[in-house]
Amino acid sequence: MKAIVIYQAGGPEQLKYVDVPTPQVKPGWSLVKIHAFGLNHSEVFTRKGESPTVHFPRILGIEGVGEIAQTTDPGRLPVGQAVVSLMGEMGRAFDGSYAEYALLPNQQIYPVTTSLSWTQLAVYPETYFTAYTSLKNLQPKPGDRYLVRGGTSGVGIAFLNLIKAKEPNAEVVGTTRSLAKVTRMRELGFSSVIEDQQGELQTNGRFDKVLELIGPATIKDTFRHVNEGGIVCITGLLGNQWTLEGFDPIFDIAPGAYLTGGYSGNVSEVRINEMFDYLKKYQVKEQPDRVFKLAEVPTAHAYLASKECMGKVVIEVD
Ligand SMILES: NC(=O)c1ccc[n+]([C@@H]2O[C@H](COP(=O)([O-])OP(=O)(O)OC[C@H]3O[C@@H](n4cnc5c(N)ncnc54)[C@H](OP(=O)(O)O)[C@@H]3O)[C@@H](O)[C@H]2O)c1
Are strands 101-105 and 29-38 parallel, antiparallel or unpaired? Predict the structure, then answer.
């Protein structure tokens, strides 16, 4: 089969389009014909060698959509069944979705019923599950004022779409380091845009619910903009700082506010179906920002890390 294999850490050019043997099924695992998959920022970290537990050579890709090609669970996962898969060490401890086929543990293959194209379906699994989990952890209430710190990221835009589909008049403010993106962010649906200048938000405004995607690097500044009783959910690490250092919870958490986290690894069939039900019920829609072919993954990685990228990048495998 064709696959993108990384043999050593580095730039996008280290992602090689090669022929490799199609994986053989083994007990408890099934073979999925990958039709499309979304790219994720975490794969950029891994490509650069910043995921210490990932050993090369490896086929990256932490999510994918496709159909069952060979099964060890014909009851739940019959051949031809449309499925999605994400996380669970896919593309990390074992080969992932940057390929024509992926051999995956049955328990992390989730059957779906959908009328969407593969390319459209690929927008949702990892990015929307992350955004949906974060939104739930923020305990949304009607009238909440939201801030998305990292508003131009795939997860940030998914979070915006989840809220706006249910509550079209909700105030959802996004941040960016680049004011050149303001018009496009407004077109996407952000109520307004705040500049994030060297880790300081250029506003005196305060919010009830904050999705923090820059992460520990900006969390102290974020809490300066949170109302009493507000909640901040750290889900992203775009600021390249993974842990809280020099953080005094007594003084640095805004008075009466709360800190939580969002993690897409907490996935199960029940939770992913709940998310797809929400997408259907509120007719949440998002077009991919850009679509590339499997052989173009190096170009797609460069695009994902570029200033132009805004939203979900999808790879078509067919
Ligand atoms: N917790 C979880 O389970 C989970 C799951 C999925 C993703 N994530 C995390 O969520 C974050 C977003 O993921 P994604 O795939 O949606 O990202 P993405 O689309 O690749 O994000 C791109 C955006 O990140 C911003 N950015 C890049 N480097 C930055 C920096 N050094 N400081 C501040 N902003 C920076 C840029 O915004 P501007 O140039 O407009 O400022 C850019 O538009 C990532 O940290 C990812 O690892 C976490």
Answer: antiparallel
